[in-house]
Design brief:
Blueprint: H1 7-10, H2 16-36, H3 44-51, H4 56-66, H5 69-81, H6 94-130, E1 135-140, E2 143-149, H7 150-175, E3 177-178, H8 192-201, E4 205-206, H9 217-243, E5 251-252, H10 272-293, H11 304-332, E6 335-336, H12 338-345, H13 354-363, H14 368-383, H15 389-394, H16 397-402, H17 405-410, H18 421-429, H19 446-449
Parallel strand pairs: 3-4
Antiparallel strand pairs: 1-2, 5-6
Helix pairs in contact: 2-3, 2-6, 2-8, 4-5, 6-7, 6-11, 7-9, 7-18, 9-10, 9-11, 10-11, 13-14
């Protein structure tokens, strides 16, 4: 499921090799802090750093005997570093290493995810400008509502992922804490200054208070943030799936040369990328629930959270990385059919302009109830296929008495519905976005992209 462009970026953060390297990083930082206080002989950390090379296979072999991962790790280090390794882990408990190292890994993961979101935002902005005046019908309840532009839809998505980015930054900062407060969190064997020194060296904040673990509401908030990002990805993917439906076909995923859509039906071109993203969003949502279940631990700590986090944190960060990259490519290469959008916009014979007609009548002095009923009456006629909405309302004595032919015609102008889009774009993209970029998108080669 996870392809090659995701694993090297994010997956490498969650290998056994990287995990043990982070553990060693914490242990050495603590040893150096103790050296600075005279509690450990000078040069121990430098000696260990020089002698020790993390060996996941050896650690795994030792763990078969010890049944304890931190002890297996420390014994592996001692095998290489010799007697001086006895000074490692002084005054510490396993969770001091585990939680602080996990914070290092999460900070690195957040950095990758933020890069992914920034790339997605740049694509969304380009598409919002490109399709700023590409008219299409807006839908509510799946039913035609009023005209919008495709660019406007991209602007909505841009703003949403901008909010998600802010949430991720906050969640990442909340996770960027370490603890070296000992078995019950009371600093029984090390002073708080050691914790502060180590965390500063590692680029973290010291948790203001902890028991044996960093409190898991932080982790639950982080996984919930990833679930929110996944929800926004699913939102966009769901829209693409709807736009690609045969009955709609206003846009579709790029279909490459030689690609196949069905083992049975040669004509099929399915939105498989979007469907994949919708499915993966469910996984991340489920993981966020598991993270919430981890908040309540027994007393000062149990390890019911540990096995869960070994799955949900690597999986969720890898999946989000993959999903953001895939969505970015999907939207960058999205095939858009403006002509079909116009066909669908006009499908109801002008019914999408009913509110504008209603308001024009009210502005001319009509009582709103009477105006609504008159417009609705002719809308229902048009809905039954009896004619063109504009032509029908123009023949109504009540309407024609209040509105001149040119005023009726003005109610059916689609571009008037996006006349304020410039102001919206300035809100979303900044003051430099007042200019227009309305070039028509390049149409795909018929042999490759256009369905028969």
């Amino acid at each position: 499921m996870i392809d090659r462009y995701s694993l090297p970026r994010m997956g490498s953060l969650w290998t056994q090799q990287r995990k043990y390297e982070a553990w060693l990083q914490v242990e050495l930082a603590a040893c150096e802090a103790l050296e600075g206080r005279g509690a450990v002989p000078k040069g121990v950390a430098a000696h260990v750093r020089r002698k020790v090379k993390v060996n996941p296979d050896r650690i795994a072999a030792i763990e078969q005997v010890t049944k304890h991962d931190i002890i297996a790790f420390l014994e592996s280090v001692a095998e290489q570093a010799g007697p001086k390794a006895r000074h490692l882990h002084t005054g510490l408990t396993s969770s001091d290493i585990l939680d602080t190292a996990l914070a290092i890994q999460v900070v690195e993961a957040v950095g990758i995810i933020l890069e992914d979101i920034d790339t997605l935002l740049s694509v969304l902005k380009v598409q919002a400008l490109k399709y700023r005046e590409t008219m299409m019908v807006g839908r509510s309840h799946g039913i035609h509502g009023e005209p919008i532009s495709l660019g406007f839809k991209f602007a909505v998505w841009f703003e949403e992922f901008t909010r998600q980015r802010k949430r991720l930054v906050a969640a990442g900062e909340d996770m960027a804490v370490g603890k070296l407060s000992g078995a019950m969190g009371t600093f029984a064997h090390l002073p708080p200054q050691v914790e502060k020194t180590v965390c500063q060296k590692l680029g973290l904040q010291a948790a203001p208070v902890s028991n044996q673990v960093v409190q898991r509401d932080r982790h639950a908030a982080f996984l919930s943030c990833l679930a929110l990002v996944a929800a926004s990805i699913e939102k966009v993917a769901t829209e693409i799936r709807h736009l690609q439906r045969t009955e709609v076909l206003e846009a579709e995923e790029y279909f490459s040369e030689g690609q196949k859509g069905s083992s049975a039906m040669p004509h099929k071109r399915n939105p498989v990328g979007s469907e994949n993203l919708c499915g993966l969003a469910r996984v991340i949502r489920g993981n966020s629930l598991a993270a919430m279940e981890n908040v309540a631990l027994w007393h000062e700590r149990d390890i019911s959270h540990s096995s869960v986090e070994r799955i949900i944190i690597p999986d969720s960060t890898i999946l989000i990385d993959y999903m953001l990259v895939r969505l970015t490519r999907l939207l960058k290469n999205l095939v858009v059919y403006p002509d079909r959008m116009l066909v669908n916009l006009n499908m109801t014979g002008g019914l999408v302009y009913s509110q504008r007609l209603l308001l024009a009548l009210v502005e001319k002095g009509a009582e709103r109830k009477a105006a609504y009923e008159a417009v609705q009456h002719h809308a229902m006629e048009t809905w039954q296929g009896t004619g063109d909405f504009q032509q029908i309302v123009a023949k109504d004595p009540f309407i024609s008495r209040l509105l001149k032919p040119g005023e009726i015609q003005a109610c059916f102008e689609p571009k008037s519905y996006i006349r304020h889009v410039g102001q919206v774009y300035r809100r979303v993209f900044g003051s430099g976005m007042s200019g227009r970029k309305t070039s028509k998108p390049t149409r795909p080669m018929k042999s490759k992209q256009t369905r028969p």
